[in-house]
Specification:
mainly alpha, elongated, ARM-type_fold, Neurochondrin-like protein, Neurochondrin
């Protein structure tokens, strides 16, 4: 049966022509909504009858005399914002609502501002609302309300916190100043609180810290890191309840994840004693949550468990630094014992999980379970990678299960991505975590062991990683499209003194996507296969397919300086495979790849950039990443020499390109002893592979004697004697 009150109201609104008549209709709506329960269908009728352009006009009005009208308009708007299917249609009110939040200045606006924040809260809960909010700089405006302490500043903070929970990626992207202002105010309030609100704030700050801009150096953020660290030291070293400790531990974990132990020791002023207390607490929490608990019980405490995992992962990496070596041996023994207990708990859980879940494909339907297992795989991988003493016997029992589980997750994500790409260009977010990416560093550690490597080969890991590389490359290309373009005059800018692109801090702040790191790890795995299983290369088609994949990728990044490490991994893995899979220069992909290889090796060294040409100088493009590139460059140059021995046309190209001539010219200028042994050996190998058939024997002998290249000297003399 139709609601007569609603019918009367709809009729009134439909017939209203003047402002007075429209206001009368709105008065009637508020009266009905207060007096009786309205069915959703009736609400939709009222929604359709309202002149929303008139409502917006009232909301935007600035005349003090119209405040009553504005109040009625906002009251009406807030009612319909509570209906999810109607709320989506009201997102275009967000700009006006944000402006109202900025204009409130006293408690006289209490009713209006309460409705304003109610509307904003409902609208920002929708995807459409958040998109419009970001476009209208909602975060900056809400931070201003909170930072200045305007009326309803706490409500503004709660909206920021809620946004940070669902829009953590990019919320403050390229807007670090706003983030800095927000954290300065938050940390100040956090330091003032002494009751339970302090721990509620700890949880809020932890959520917001997940949104910290990654495109700026850590040193940009001043004052507040030290304030938060000081408060955490006071809290976690005090006698507090379990409920209070959890949010503090989660906040500490997020600070460590954002800044790292070393930075927080210097800038955050955390003490070594607090550091060890923190790690011990994390280890205790892991054992309390995991040991003798069901999976359902464990998942209920997943946020605290993930935070504890993050703390010990960061600490294990920190254990490899010179700073850690200076710590007291007794403290080290105690913390290592605590880590051992946590490690055992994780391994035991995974063993039990493996035995109880024989069919890994069935587990993919439970996202929470998959996320937790992925976290266990990650922490286990970090232990295997960073801690040389940690290699339990159980790893051989676990390895097949962990690899199979990780592969199943990847295959499901890959199917989703492929399906989406066929349908549209919508940005894709995986429904499952990516444990295979997390497991790659551990696989690299395990590969030198013959039995474990054979196990991985039997699981067809090389074929899986080929597909996985293509999957990650698609994600990487999607990520690239979202980035600001690199200036085409990057080299000229640097040489002219503009260090914006090339300061160490700026370089350290560049966001490296997970896909880029994954591709680098995959390249390293294939390099290991070539080194350790060379007879497999010709027998397994996956290697030839991966080489073609490398050919297709190199051209897209070989002129982009920010990807020089990724380029180096492609070049070296490709040239190593090419040694066993020779190809003719008639293939344009092969020719272009060799050209890119030579360019990569050539660009690394440039003696013309030095005031003293007697010294070897690493070029600007490579200098910052040289610690990551040096060994790879040496390996690649040595492998290029081997390729030349098998493919004469490659040697001819090296000479015709002018690369060998530049090397000879450089070696004739650089003083003896100014080249490190590894670089000298790589250069000697390359020149030896070219030989006197392509290079002047007198010049070769002169260079060989100048730099003590005995192999090159003997080879040149032998070739001369044969003539």
């Amino acid at each position: 049966m139709a609601n007569k009150s609603v019918e009367m109201c709809v009729a009134s609104l439909s017939q209203a022509k003047t402002v007075t008549e429209k206001m009368a209709g709105l008065f009637l709506i508020t009266k009905i909504l207060k007096a009786e329960e309205i069915e959703p269908s009736d609400l939709k009728q009222l929604f359709a009858a309202i002149d929303w352009a008139f409502i917006k006009l009232l909301v935007k009005s600035s005349d003090n005399e119209s405040s009553m009208y504005k109040s009625i308009a906002l009251s009406t708007l807030s009612v319909f914002c509570r209906v999810p299917e109607l709320c989506k249609s009201l997102s275009d009110f967000i700009p006006e609502l944000l402006d109202m939040a900025l204009s409130a200045d006293s408690e006289d606006d209490l009713l209006i501002m309460s409705d304003t924040y109610d509307c904003l809260e409902a609208l920002l809960a929708t995807k459409e609302g958040r998109k419009i909010a970001v476009e209208n700089k909602a975060v900056e405006k809400l931070v201003r309300v909170y930072d200045v302490g305007m009326f309803k500043d706490e409500e503004a903070l709660q909206l920021i916190v809620k946004l940070s929970k669902v829009e953590s990626e990019g919320l403050f992207h390229r807007n670090p100043e706003t983030f800095q202002r927000l954290l300065n105010r938050l940390s100040s309030e956090f330091a003032k609180e002494i009751d339970d609100k302090k721990f509620a704030m700890a949880s809020e700050i932890a959520h917001i810290l997940r949104c910290m801009p990654s495109d700026v150096p850590k040193t940009f953020f001043k004052d507040w890191p030290a304030v938060i660290c000081n408060e955490l030291m006071g809290v976690l070293c005090s006698k507090i309840t379990y409920q209070q400790r959890d949010p503090a531990l989660i906040l500490a974990s997020q600070m460590i994840e954002n800044f790292g132990f070393e930075y927080l020791q210097t800038e955050g002023k955390i003490t070594s004693q607090f550091l060890f207390i923190l790690v011990n607490l994390a280890c205790i929490e892991i054992r309390m949550i995991i040991e003798d608990r069901s999976l359902e019980q464990i998942v209920q405490n997943s946020r605290l468990l993930m935070a504890s995992f993050s703390i010990i992962e960061s600490f294990i990496v920190y254990m490899g630094t010179p700073t850690y070596e200076k710590f007291d041996e007794k403290q080290k023994e105690q913390v290592y014992a605590a880590l051992g207990g946590a490690e055992t708990a994780v391994v035991c859980f995974l063993l039990k999980f493996k035995d109880e879940n024989k069919q890994t494909s069935k587990l993919m339907s439970n996202t929470e379970t998959t996320c937790f297992v992925a976290a266990c795989i990650r922490v286990l991988s970090v232990w295997l990678t960073e801690d040389p003493h940690f290699l339990p016997d159980d790893v051989d029992v676990l390895l097949p299960f962990l690899v199979e589980y990780s592969i199943k997750c990847f295959e499901k994500n890959n199917r989703e991505l492929t399906s989406l790409k066929k349908q549209s260009t919508t940005k894709w977010t995986s429904s499952l975590p990516d444990p295979l990416r997390l497991l790659l560093p551990a696989i690299l550690i395990l590969m030198p062991d013959n039995a474990r490597r054979k196990m991985l080969i039997e699981m067809d890991l090389q074929r899986v990683l080929l597909d996985y590389a293509k999957y990650q490359w698609r994600l990487f290309r999607d990520w690239q499209k979202e980035q600001l373009p690199t200036p085409s005059d990057w080299l000229g800018a640097s040489l002219s003194g503009d260090t914006r692109l090339f300061s160490d801090d700026e370089s350290a702040g560049r966001e490296v996507p997970e896909s880029e790191a994954a591709i680098i790890s995959i390249c390293t795995v294939f390099m290991n296969f070539v080194s350790m299983e060379p007879f497999l290369i010709n027998d397994d088609p996956a290697f030839k397919a991966f080489l073609k994949f490398v050919f297709s990728c190199v051209g897209d990044i070989n002129k982009k300086p920010e990807y020089v490490v990724l380029l180096g991994n492609f070049v070296v893995s490709g040239i190593m495979l090419l040694r066993y899979l020779p190809a003719e220069d008639s293939d344009p992909m092969v020719f272009n790849f060799i050209s890119s290889c030579v360019r990569f090796f050539w660009d690394a060294i440039d003696f013309e950039e030095s005031n003293d040409r007697r010294k070897l100088v690493i070029s600007i493009r490579y200098k910052r990443q040289w610690p990551e590139l040096a060994e790879m460059w040496i390996l690649g140059m040595g492998t290029l020499a081997k390729v030349i021995e098998n493919s004469a046309w490659v040697g001819d190209f090296v000479v015709d390109s002018g690369f060998s001539g530049e090397i000879m010219k450089m070696l004739q200028n650089v003083m003896h002893g100014e080249i490190d042994i590894g670089t000298k050996t790589a250069l000697e190998d390359l020149l030896s592979s070219l030989g006197t058939k392509r290079l002047n024997s007198r010049d070769l002998l002169k260079v060989a004697r100048r730099h003590g290249m005995s192999m090159l000297s003997k080879m040149t003399q032998a070739e001369e004697n044969e003539k």
